[in-house]
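Good morning C.,

I know you're traveling, so I'll keep this short. The sequence:
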Amino acid sequence: MSLLLKSRLLAGAAAWMLLSGAGLCPAHAADQALLAAQSEVTFVAKQLGVPLDGKFKTFSAQTAFDPKSPQTSKIAFTVDLGSVALNADADAELVKPDWFNTPRFPKATFQSTAIKALGGGRFEVAGKLAIKGNARDLVVPVQLKQAGGLSTATGSFALKRLDFKIGEGDWSDTSVVANDVQVKFKLVLQGVPAM
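The C-alpha coordinates, ready to paste straight into the viewer:
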Protein backbone atom coordinates (compact mmCIF):
# COMPACT_ATOMS: atom_id res chain seq x y z
CA MET A 1 0.00 0.00 0.00
CA SER A 2 1.31 3.43 -0.88
CA LEU A 3 2.01 6.08 1.71
CA LEU A 4 -0.53 8.30 0.04
CA LEU A 5 -3.21 5.69 0.45
CA LYS A 6 -2.36 5.15 4.08
CA SER A 7 -2.39 8.89 4.74
CA ARG A 8 -5.85 9.10 3.27
CA LEU A 9 -7.03 6.28 5.43
CA LEU A 10 -5.79 8.10 8.49
CA ALA A 11 -7.44 11.26 7.41
CA GLY A 12 -10.70 9.38 7.04
CA ALA A 13 -10.63 8.48 10.69
CA ALA A 14 -10.17 12.11 11.50
CA ALA A 15 -13.07 13.06 9.34
CA TRP A 16 -15.29 10.79 11.26
CA MET A 17 -14.45 12.69 14.43
CA LEU A 18 -15.48 15.83 12.83
CA LEU A 19 -19.00 14.57 12.43
CA SER A 20 -19.19 14.30 16.13
CA GLY A 21 -19.07 18.05 16.43
CA ALA A 22 -22.75 18.67 15.85
CA GLY A 23 -24.19 18.04 19.31
CA LEU A 24 -28.00 18.14 19.77
CA CYS A 25 -30.76 17.76 22.80
CA PRO A 26 -32.87 14.89 24.32
CA ALA A 27 -36.32 16.50 24.49
CA HIS A 28 -36.42 16.77 20.70
CA ALA A 29 -34.59 13.57 19.80
CA ALA A 30 -37.58 11.74 18.29
CA ASP A 31 -38.14 14.52 15.77
CA GLN A 32 -34.52 15.07 14.74
CA ALA A 33 -32.78 13.35 11.86
CA LEU A 34 -29.48 13.65 10.03
CA LEU A 35 -29.96 14.09 6.28
CA ALA A 36 -26.92 12.06 5.26
CA ALA A 37 -27.31 12.69 1.52
CA GLN A 38 -26.90 16.44 2.15
CA SER A 39 -24.16 16.02 4.76
CA GLU A 40 -20.46 15.35 4.39
CA VAL A 41 -17.37 14.50 6.37
CA THR A 42 -14.07 15.20 4.67
CA PHE A 43 -10.45 15.11 5.75
CA VAL A 44 -6.97 16.07 4.66
CA ALA A 45 -3.88 14.09 5.63
CA LYS A 46 -0.33 14.66 4.44
CA GLN A 47 2.05 12.11 3.01
CA LEU A 48 5.59 13.35 2.43
CA GLY A 49 4.16 16.85 2.79
CA VAL A 50 1.59 16.37 0.02
CA PRO A 51 -2.07 16.91 1.05
CA LEU A 52 -4.42 13.96 0.45
CA ASP A 53 -8.20 14.52 0.40
CA GLY A 54 -10.75 11.93 1.42
CA LYS A 55 -14.23 11.46 2.84
CA PHE A 56 -16.52 8.99 4.58
CA LYS A 57 -19.62 7.91 2.68
CA THR A 58 -21.57 6.17 5.46
CA PHE A 59 -22.36 7.68 8.86
CA SER A 60 -25.31 8.14 11.19
CA ALA A 61 -26.28 10.28 14.16
CA GLN A 62 -28.75 10.19 17.00
CA THR A 63 -29.32 13.78 18.09
CA ALA A 64 -31.29 15.56 20.75
CA PHE A 65 -30.38 19.23 20.44
CA ASP A 66 -32.03 22.45 21.50
CA PRO A 67 -29.99 25.57 20.62
CA LYS A 68 -31.71 27.39 23.50
CA SER A 69 -30.70 24.66 25.96
CA PRO A 70 -27.38 23.23 24.75
CA GLN A 71 -26.39 22.06 28.23
CA THR A 72 -29.12 19.38 28.07
CA SER A 73 -28.35 18.43 24.47
CA LYS A 74 -26.75 15.16 23.35
CA ILE A 75 -25.33 13.61 20.21
CA ALA A 76 -24.11 10.14 19.36
CA PHE A 77 -22.36 9.64 16.05
CA THR A 78 -21.22 6.51 14.24
CA VAL A 79 -19.02 6.26 11.15
CA ASP A 80 -18.54 3.15 9.05
CA LEU A 81 -14.74 3.10 8.73
CA GLY A 82 -14.97 0.87 5.68
CA SER A 83 -16.77 3.66 3.82
CA VAL A 84 -13.68 5.85 3.55
CA ALA A 85 -13.38 7.06 -0.05
CA LEU A 86 -9.90 7.56 -1.46
CA ASN A 87 -9.07 5.10 -4.23
CA ALA A 88 -9.24 1.36 -4.88
CA ASP A 89 -5.85 0.71 -3.29
CA ALA A 90 -6.85 2.58 -0.15
CA ASP A 91 -10.12 0.70 0.12
CA ALA A 92 -8.22 -2.60 0.05
CA GLU A 93 -5.63 -1.42 2.59
CA LEU A 94 -8.15 0.07 4.99
CA VAL A 95 -9.19 -3.27 6.45
CA LYS A 96 -5.66 -4.17 7.52
CA PRO A 97 -4.57 -4.14 11.19
CA ASP A 98 -2.02 -1.32 10.77
CA TRP A 99 -4.78 1.05 9.70
CA PHE A 100 -8.47 0.80 10.72
CA ASN A 101 -8.52 -2.97 11.22
CA THR A 102 -12.16 -2.98 10.11
CA PRO A 103 -12.80 -6.70 10.70
CA ARG A 104 -12.18 -6.05 14.40
CA PHE A 105 -13.19 -2.34 14.61
CA PRO A 106 -15.73 -1.60 11.84
CA LYS A 107 -17.10 1.60 13.39
CA ALA A 108 -15.83 4.80 14.95
CA THR A 109 -18.07 6.47 17.54
CA PHE A 110 -18.49 9.84 19.22
CA GLN A 111 -20.61 10.54 22.28
CA SER A 112 -21.04 14.12 23.48
CA THR A 113 -20.43 14.90 27.15
CA ALA A 114 -21.07 18.67 27.17
CA ILE A 115 -22.29 21.33 24.75
CA LYS A 116 -21.76 25.04 25.38
CA ALA A 117 -23.25 28.02 23.50
CA LEU A 118 -20.70 30.66 22.51
CA GLY A 119 -23.14 33.11 20.90
CA GLY A 120 -23.96 33.92 17.29
CA GLY A 121 -24.91 30.32 16.46
CA ARG A 122 -21.52 29.05 17.63
CA PHE A 123 -21.21 26.06 19.97
CA GLU A 124 -18.43 24.07 21.59
CA VAL A 125 -19.10 20.33 21.65
CA ALA A 126 -17.04 18.16 24.00
CA GLY A 127 -17.14 14.39 23.95
CA LYS A 128 -15.38 11.04 23.63
CA LEU A 129 -14.17 9.83 20.25
CA ALA A 130 -13.40 6.13 19.91
CA ILE A 131 -11.54 4.68 16.94
CA LYS A 132 -9.92 1.26 16.76
CA GLY A 133 -10.56 0.62 20.45
CA ASN A 134 -8.89 3.87 21.55
CA ALA A 135 -10.97 6.64 23.15
CA ARG A 136 -9.90 10.27 23.49
CA ASP A 137 -11.52 13.47 24.68
CA LEU A 138 -12.34 15.86 21.86
CA VAL A 139 -13.65 19.45 21.80
CA VAL A 140 -15.06 20.62 18.47
CA PRO A 141 -16.15 24.15 17.50
CA VAL A 142 -19.45 24.09 15.59
CA GLN A 143 -21.31 26.82 13.68
CA LEU A 144 -25.07 26.28 13.38
CA LYS A 145 -27.17 28.00 10.71
CA GLN A 146 -30.89 27.53 10.16
CA ALA A 147 -32.91 28.09 6.99
CA GLY A 148 -35.90 26.49 5.32
CA GLY A 149 -36.68 24.26 8.29
CA LEU A 150 -33.19 22.71 8.24
CA SER A 151 -30.19 23.21 10.50
CA THR A 152 -26.66 22.99 9.12
CA ALA A 153 -23.78 22.37 11.52
CA THR A 154 -20.29 23.03 10.15
CA GLY A 155 -16.84 22.93 11.64
CA SER A 156 -13.31 21.66 11.47
CA PHE A 157 -10.65 20.32 13.81
CA ALA A 158 -7.32 18.51 13.86
CA LEU A 159 -6.67 15.10 15.33
CA LYS A 160 -3.55 13.07 15.92
CA ARG A 161 -3.83 9.76 14.08
CA LEU A 162 -1.31 8.00 16.32
CA ASP A 163 -3.53 8.69 19.36
CA PHE A 164 -5.90 6.16 17.78
CA LYS A 165 -3.18 3.77 16.51
CA ILE A 166 -4.06 4.55 12.91
CA GLY A 167 -0.99 3.80 10.83
CA GLU A 168 1.00 1.48 13.07
CA GLY A 169 4.31 -0.25 12.41
CA ASP A 170 6.31 1.33 9.59
CA TRP A 171 3.47 3.82 9.10
CA SER A 172 4.00 5.40 12.52
CA ASP A 173 6.86 7.44 11.02
CA THR A 174 5.41 10.97 10.97
CA SER A 175 8.02 12.14 8.45
CA VAL A 176 6.25 9.91 5.94
CA VAL A 177 2.61 10.28 7.01
CA ALA A 178 1.93 13.35 9.16
CA ASN A 179 0.40 12.76 12.58
CA ASP A 180 -2.04 15.66 12.19
CA VAL A 181 -5.20 15.06 10.19
CA GLN A 182 -7.55 17.97 9.42
CA VAL A 183 -11.24 17.13 9.50
CA LYS A 184 -14.13 19.20 8.13
CA PHE A 185 -17.83 18.49 8.34
CA LYS A 186 -21.21 19.71 7.20
CA LEU A 187 -24.16 18.02 8.90
CA VAL A 188 -27.68 18.84 7.74
CA LEU A 189 -30.39 18.09 10.31
CA GLN A 190 -34.13 18.36 10.35
CA GLY A 191 -36.28 18.80 13.44
CA VAL A 192 -33.90 21.01 15.42
CA PRO A 193 -35.77 23.79 17.32
CA ALA A 194 -35.21 27.38 16.22
CA MET A 195 -32.39 29.37 17.79
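Safe travels,
E.
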